[in-house]
Amino acid sequence: MSVPLIEFRDVAKSFNGQAVLDGVNLSIYEGQITTIIGKSGSGKSVLLKHIIGLLEPDSGSILFNGQSVNRMKRGEWDRYRVQISYLFQNNALFDSMTVFDNLALPLRQTTRMGSKVIEEKIKTRLEQTDLADAAGKYPSELSGGMQKRVALARALVTDPKVILFDEPTTGQDPIRRNVILSMISEYRRKFGFTAVLISHDIPDVYFISDRIILLWEGKVVFQGSYGELTEFSHPMINEFLDSIEGLRDGLTGLISRQVFRSRYQVSQTRGQPDKAMAGILFSVEFDQLAENLGASVAVEVLKVLGEYVSRELGGVGGFSARFGRGEFLTVLPYADAQEAEQMLEEFSRNLEDGGLSKIKAETGLKMGIDACFGIHVYASVVGINPNDDIEAIMHGARPGSRVVARHICV
Question: Are residues 346 and 297 in the same domain?
Fold first, then answer.
């Protein structure tokens, strides 16, 4: 793996004799979304504040692109600090300023740009983040979701290399939470920054994370992908996973991936080795107009799709989980591939007749528009062999993916 963009080496920090960070070692890589998880009071926020320089370690080193932050000279430190933005949990917008002035403030205070240059830069960023119509409004005139978008646009205005997110979805309902996470993922791809999040919203946050760091009693006990987390055996990790075992995907109501894996293992040893099993892999795509409407459309589609999968395939013994932002896997322990095809045909008909048209109507109403956009649901049936792992099932299913339901208004 490449040299980490940010690296902690044996970092320790105590307050009033109480160790909060106790020899922390971790790596954050450029271009990725890294999420730091752990119980309350485990030091997540303290760790984040060390990255931006709000706190200094008692011992150990923090490196940026291989260079020790602790040993930087004043000019080097200034160049480092300007590359990092911090998005506060409560957005920290100034109520007395318009959206335009909130975005302009960092440039006015930290750069020598002229007013004309700043004005053009802000206009561009507002257009890129779909906020042009809100430029003259005050934060109190915006919804909570729009305020979060303004805060993110302000964090982006200095073209940072890294954005730190302190509990960006705290207190949000499942749909709004997933809209915010989708927005972070979408903007990361669009603007190319590295994202570091701390979050309690499990498992929702896993769907956008490239890398997960588990902080436990002041130490990093795991860093890697979510798949590696669920397969890594360690008493502290097991305790943590047990604490979230019963949690469901807040958006769709489907079981967590950890519970899904456990149920799949049980189904493999249910004592019927001669009985075939089948899986159905679902995915969703949108036309360009739907993508332009933002994350809200995608979240509404995923919510309805999850509800349909749970209701119609759960009723025949199937169990399902979301393995990507727009990808669901259902295992049917009591059906072979031919039976699964028949189930999929009925499921697709019901989804197309009811769910997708409902999505269009409800989404348009919520967004105050009468836009016409296309939604395409893909699916593929695959037979499951006794020794297949979940990754092999999904890999085998993807080549056969086809459109099984669509909604296109004319």
Answer: yes
Buried b (16+ CB within 10 A) or exposed e, 134-149: bbeebbeebeebbbbb
Torsion sign over Cα 199, 200, 201, 206: positive
Contact 185/107 with Cβ under 8 angstroms?
Answer: no
Residues 39 and 148 in one domain: yes
Do residues 275 and 331 both lie within one domain? yes
Cβ atoms of 153 and 129 within 8 Å: the answer is: yes
In this structure, is residue 84 part of a structural domain? Answer: yes
| Residue 35 structure tokens | 């999420």
Residues 6+ apart with CB under 8 A from 307: 252, 253, 355
Are 125 and 198 found together in one domain?
A: yes
Considering the domain boundaries, does residue 251 fall inside one?
no
Give the global pTM.
0.67
295-314 b/e (C-beta count within 10 Å ≥ 16 → b): bbbbbbbbbbbbebbbebbe
Report how far residue 225's alpha carbon sits from residue 32's, in angstroms, rounded to the nearest whole number. 11
Any idea what DSSP says for residue 206?
G
C-beta of residue 264 within 8 angstroms of C-beta of residue 331: yes
Contact assessment for residue 326 and residue 377, using Cβ atoms and an 8 Å cutoff: no
Asked whether residue 219 falls in the same domain as residue 279, the answer is no
Q: What are 205-256's pLDDT values in tens digits?
A: 777 889 999 888 889 988 998 778 767 666 666 666 655 545 567 677 787 7
Its domain, for residue 227, covers: 6-243
Residue 105: exposure state from Cβ atoms within 10 A (0-12, 13-18, ≥19): middle
Question: In this predicted model, what pLDDT tens digit does every residue of 16-63 receive, in sequence order?
Answer: 888 999 999 999 999 999 999 887 778 888 999 999 888 999 999 999
Three-state secondary structure of 284-313:
EEECHHHHHCCHHHHHHHHHHHHHHHHHHH
